[in-house]
Structures are given as C-alpha cells and as structure tokens.
Amino acid sequence: MGPEWGQSPSLTMPIFEYSCNACHHEFETLVRTGDTPACPKCAATALTKLLSLPAIKSESTHDLAMRAAHRRDKIQQSEKNREQREYELNHDD
Ligand SMILES: [Zn+2]
C-alpha cells in the first residue's frame, strides 16, 4: 500500500478505542452505524469508549513520527557539518 492510502475520504472509517469492562483489554475497532462493538478477547459488549481516532491511526502516526525524527536528525547533522566547516574556515588562515 502506497503513502496515498487512507487519504481518500471513501476509505475513511470510524475507528474507536475501547476498554473492556469485563477483562480490561484495550482495543481499537471499526464501528459502523448499527454495529455493537465487542471485546475481541472475551466478547463482552460492556465497553468503555476511550477516544475516537482517525482511521489508520497506528500506521500513519508512526510514519509521521519516523519522518519527523529523520528530519530532525538531518537538521542536526547539517548544523553540525556547518559548524565544523565554519570552524575549519576560521582556523585555516
Ligand atoms: Zn474483554
């Protein structure tokens, strides 16, 4: 699946995070209108809704976090390189 996946509104689905009241298992599930979500572990339907999440949350936020971290590393690296070059320029006369 390419990076475009999930950007089309037609693929956006409501994903909700629940905590099971019976076994306290936390899970994310797709909930369409009329669906009653059930715990995947014990099948209980007594659940506490934790928060609503945008679709494909885990994959996309991980990806974004990774990209942000890479960008930060690159910036730090280029600043280091520049400092090194300036140091060499100033001490090479
Ligand atoms: Zn459960």
Can you put this structure into words, describing what you see?
This protein is α+β, with helices and mostly antiparallel strands and 93 residues long. It folds into two domains: 13-55; 56-93. Helices cover 37% and strands 19% of the residues. The protein has one helix at residues 57-90, and strands spanning 15-20, 26-30, 47-53. The longest helix is centred in the C-terminal third of the chain and has 34 residues, at 57-90. The protein starts with 14 loop residues before the first strand and ends with a helix. The relative contact order is 0.15. The model has no long low-confidence stretch (mean pLDDT 79). The structure holds zinc ion.
How are the elements arranged and paired?
Layout: E1 15-20, E2 26-30, E3 47-53, H1 57-90
Antiparallel strand pairs: 1-2, 1-3
The structure holds zinc ion (ZN).
Residues 20, 22-23, 25, 39, 41-42, 44 line the site of zinc ion.
- How much strand? 15-25%
Reading the helices and strands in chain order gives EEEH
Helical proportion, percent range: 25-40%
Q: Which class best fits the helix and strand makeup?
A: alpha+beta
Characterize the overall form: rod-shaped
Distance between the termini: 55 Å
> How many individual β-strands?
3
Overview features:
93 residues, rod-shaped, binds zinc ion
Summarize the structure.
By secondary structure, the protein is α+β, with helices and mostly antiparallel strands. 37% of the residues lie in helices and 19% in strands.
